[in-house]
Amino acid sequence: IELTSLSLRSNKQRSGGCLHLRSSLFECEGAQCLHPPLLFVSSESKLQNGGALTLSVLCSLYVKEHSLSLSLKHTMDVSMGCPFLLPILFMAILAGSTAANVAKLDVYPKILKKSGDPVKIKWSGISNPCALDWLGVYSPATSSDENYIGYVFLSSSPTWNSGSGSIVLPLLNLRSSYQFRIFNWNESEINNGTRRDDMGNPLPGTRHLLATSEEISFVNYNDPSQIHLAFGAKDDEMRVMFITRDGMRSSVRYGLKEDELGETVEAPATTYTRPDMCDSPANSDIGWRDPGYIHDGLMKNLKPGKKYYYK
């Protein structure tokens, strides 16, 4: 729940050498999952002769037909000349009350051996699950919340409405780390300003972040990927192309037997950069991904009608 406005009203009166403060803090943004959409916090405090301020807060959160009540008490020494301490105490207590139910997101394994290996993603502690809660996929892991490269609704897990669940996803080696994040999203946030995909469907909002996973990495970011074969200029030639993160020296070995790759050719590497692209979003900060280095090896003197192995 995200408070959108805070209202603090106080009524001060002196009675019997004591200072009484009564205040109310309320108003929150309505959400589809809350019925009624209300967060109410009330407090009463008394400044006694010893100068000790005791603040008791009762916080009630109504979720569907169930209610959750939390009572906190905080005591500290203050002077009667420090009225600004009251809102500070409110902020501290509100922060503490939300720490009791913190969503948790775990991913394993955290280091993958090769491209396409699966990871299991588990979450728990979502106190008010919604059908539109979603999991964002981020690569590199330092990407901002809005720049996810994919997403999955938590409702794809059969146990999502319990606040816990798990899914399995394969991850491609994009030559950078991954991270997962869980967000709350509801239909009331969809409007004309909502981002949409190419089909016109609204893209999930990132306003309410619930949990963040640790980074997931690969053993070797230079593992050759996207291997392609193509015809050469001559009938006895075949071209092998692949990608690595770095522009290292590489080669292609090939032969008629899998355990005897007697022929070797160099595979020089080249790449392109963001300024080489024609227009936005390809040449902008958002949407650009380093393509790595493209290696090109030309196998020659191939015999027709024969099966070749290459590496």
Automatic annotation (TrEMBL):
GO MF term list: acid phosphatase activity; metal ion binding
Localization of this protein: Secreted
Domain of life: Eukaryota
The Purple acid phosphatase N-terminal domain, residue ranges: 224-311
Keywords: Secreted
GO cellular component terms, A-Z: extracellular region
PANTHER family from the UniProt entry: PURPLE ACID PHOSPHATASE, PURPLE ACID PHOSPHATASE-RELATED
Protein name in the entry: Purple acid phosphatase N-terminal domain-containing protein
Biological classification of the source: Eukaryota, Viridiplantae, Streptophyta, Embryophyta, Tracheophyta
